[in-house]
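#data-curation
PF: Archiving a pair of folding outputs for the training set. Convention for this channel: one message per protein, sequence first, structure tokens after, nothing in between. First:
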Amino acid sequence: MVFPMRNLTATLCLMIAVLLGSAGMSWSAELKPLSKILRSETSESMSTYATERCSALYLSLSGLLLNRPNNRSIQEISKGYLKIYRELAALALWSNQKMNPSFTIQDLQNILIRIRNAYDQKWKENHALTGHNIGDMTKDDVATCNSLAK
């Protein structure tokens, strides 16, 4: 009866390793402030990532504003964010195609959706903790993206 115990031990060790690995992946997959990322790496691919991330951020912010009560000035800000989103998305597409000629607009759309989902998750966590969607990291990203968009 020693063998079943070894199998049980091996199964438990594997399960613990998988759980620890997936927990580590979820922690490392969290959004980090864009300014911090850009300070640590300045490659062409990181510049492209910053453009993608800012594009997704402006699109997400526009969506947040559209969910507010009908207010003309908020609507104008939302339209401005949509304009910046489109410009940055076009730049991100061009930059990606320069590095990889087979890169498509669908590839970019998939990237932007994943980034938007990451922001949405961050905003839900912020709301649960503070009652506000926008936290310090998003404010930092907006400042970084405003500089990039100029």
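PF: Second:
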Amino acid sequence: MEYLGVIGHIRSCQCKQRPVLRIPRRFPVMLRPSSGHKPDRFAVAQERERPELYYVFRSEDMGGSYDTVGTVMDPDTSYEDGGLRSNTTYFYYVTAWNQARGSSGPSDSVSARTYGRPTVPGDVTAEAVDTSRIGLQWRRSGNEPELYYVFRSENLGGGYDTVGTVADPDTSYEDGGLRSRTTYFYYVTAWNTWGSSDTSGHASATTPGPEDPPTVPGDVTAEAVDTSRIGCSGAGAGTDRSYTMYFDRRTWEGVMIRWGR
């Protein structure tokens, strides 16, 4: 009489953070009635092959060491494994056991990965579009993100507010209504049903200002040049260069500008 054989294939599925094993109720019967057997001998043999327990083994490495994580009473053929880490792949196999014959060989190995929060959005960049808008871009998160939240502050060290949300798979955002000549700091987080990612790296951009009018000329002086001309000198507006402007005394119209250093 042979020992118990290997039980059949098992299936696994992802269910939140608790992989569920579906165990086929199959424990091979090695005895068969022969010409010299009475009918009741076959019935006894079938009863001896009936499983009483299933043992569930788990590992985080397919080729590594497996530990017993649970037992299931026949005829139940499923097991829910709990207390696992998110975003982690686990490997399983199952054996069957009864008191009369001991344990079967191991089933085929199966694996499942627990769900979890999205990974951190990567490569966040910010660039000014004009005096009141800044555009942001980032790299898509892993683990099935559903939304991205964009945070902004005028201080790198704190005081960040949520300024926008972006639905996956979009990975860009344009922030508007900003002040000119102001530096803004940003970071992004990803979100799904299982929670939010950690914050991304920070990015910053400075909005430009509108064209400024020239500054007022300084140190202006006036001096007669001859009977018909007066020269005015001063510092150039918005520059470190000086100039001299000549006027026609009769019309007070400028007739010439001479720049100096």
